[in-house]
TrEMBL record:
Residues 56-83, 82-110, 142-164 form the C2H2-type domain. This is C2H2-type domain-containing protein. GO terms for molecular function: zinc ion binding. SMART domains: ZnF_C2H2. It comes from the Eukaryota. It comes from Enterobius vermicularis (Human pinworm). Residues 1-20 are annotated as: Disordered. InterPro entries: Znf_C2H2_sf, Znf_C2H2_type. Pfam families: zf-C2H2 (PF00096). The keyword Zinc-finger applies. Keywords: Metal-binding, Repeat, Zinc, Zinc-finger.
Length: 248
């Protein structure tokens, strides 16, 4: 990667070295730069009145944020800027493209788990450690404050906590072709594949679901491309498989 100046290069190198020199004065969490510290404080301290909290929502997935800056950074994940040279898949960043090529086209797994002999497509040892901790460890670090249930992953805890909320909906994933409802994406993916023989939409590596305005998850059928990538690929603005947006 290339950078405009040495300052940007030094900031980037911290991602590889793990150097985190800035700490939150309230919780002690370390960060690699001041912008990440500020984002952390806006996310975590707004409910305590330290920052003025107002909700701005992403129109792609309905997720809300406490500042427009956080929203802009999030929206970049929805806009695809790179296309795989070997297939029709489009991705948002160079690292995702690199991982896709290694995993799908080169069939290369860079790290092997010594506990299950499973070869993993991970780019660093941190991801391998995460696999070992989540799959092979008996340490259930995430505990539900309501009922005491324990989980390996924070994502599992977040999903479980929805059951304790008022107005809980057990079936959140809806089929866009019929009235079928499922509790998760795995069930809906199996339904789309077996009943409707639905292919993975153009530009995607797998079935992906997005949250609609009514709160339910549905299959994402159109890939969102940056205007630059759309021009490079010669995709017209009225193509039914894509949505084109300005560069962020």
């Amino acid at each position: 990667m290339t950078f405009r100046n040495k300052s940007n290069l030094r900031t980037h190198v911290r991602h590889h070295s793990g150097d985190k020199s800035t700490a939150c004065p309230f919780c002690g969490t370390f960060f690699s730069n001041n912008s990440k510290l500020f984002n952390h404080m806006v996310r975590k301290l707004s409910p305590n009145g330290m920052f003025e909290k107002y909700a701005v929502a992403c129109h792609f997935c309905q997720k809300t944020f406490n500042s427009e800056r956080l929203l802009r950074e999030h929206i970049r994940r929805h806009v695809m800027n790179y296309k795989c040279q070997f297939c029709s898949v489009t991705l948002d960043c160079p690292s995702a493209l690199h991982r896709h090529i290694l995993n799908v086209h080169a069939n290369l797994r860079q790290f092997c788990c010594n506990l299950c002999s499973r070869k993993l497509c991970v780019l660093n040892c941190t991801d391998l450690d995460r696999h070992v901790g989540a799959i092979h460890s008996n340490d259930l670090a995430h505990v539900c404050a309501e009922c005491g249930d324990k989980f390996h992953w924070r994502k599992q805890l977040v999903t479980h906590m929805r059951k304790h909320k008022e107005g809980y909906q057990p079936f959140t994933h809806l089929c866009h072709l019929c009235e079928a409802r499922y509790a998760n994406g795995f069930g809906l993916s199996r339904h789309l594949l077996k009943k409707h023989k639905c292919k993975v939409p153009v530009g995607f590596t797998r079935y992906q679901y997005k949250k609609c305005a009514d709160g339910f998850m549905r299959l994402q059928t159109k890939r969102c491309l940056s205007k630059t990538l759309a021009l490079q690929l010669g995709i017209p603005s009225n193509d039914s498989n894509y949505v084109t947006v300005r560069n962020l």
